[in-house]
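Memo to structure team: turn this sequence into structure tokens by end of day. - J.P.
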Amino acid sequence: MSKLTPLKLRAEDAEDITVLSACLQDATLQLADIVWQPKQRRFTLVLNRFRWEDEARDTVRGARRLGAKPHFRSKAGLHFDSVLRVQHQGLEAAGPLELLSVLAEFGPDDLGGAPAARLTLVFAGGGAVRLDVECIAAELQDIGTPYPVRRVPKHQTDDLQS
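Reply from structure team:
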């Protein structure tokens, strides 16, 4: 049996953002849990991320079985520093308590000037947030104890038959 270890990641380049994006896949949050602090140049989110890294484990110490195998989410904090500008699209109609689901984090787009990079958070339903950053400086950290959930997030896949 194994214990669930809190995740703590730092992203400083494109490769790190790819890893961070994988950890954020299917995270959920409310619009009210997103904060842009322009004076501090910081963009912060509090979210509930699905613990994909635990899906290969057979058992976890202290976990109650929910069906054949327990699945887990963790509350996590994510912040981006050196943010010059934030833009959003498709979130205008969302209320502050509406649940958003992270599909992916894309970037960085190397712009060769100011801003140095552009990062995009894409949400289910078509919403997105774009961050223009001076440099890539992000941190993701689990907060508190992971909690069991019944379902694994599922995605529709395109039919690739010709």
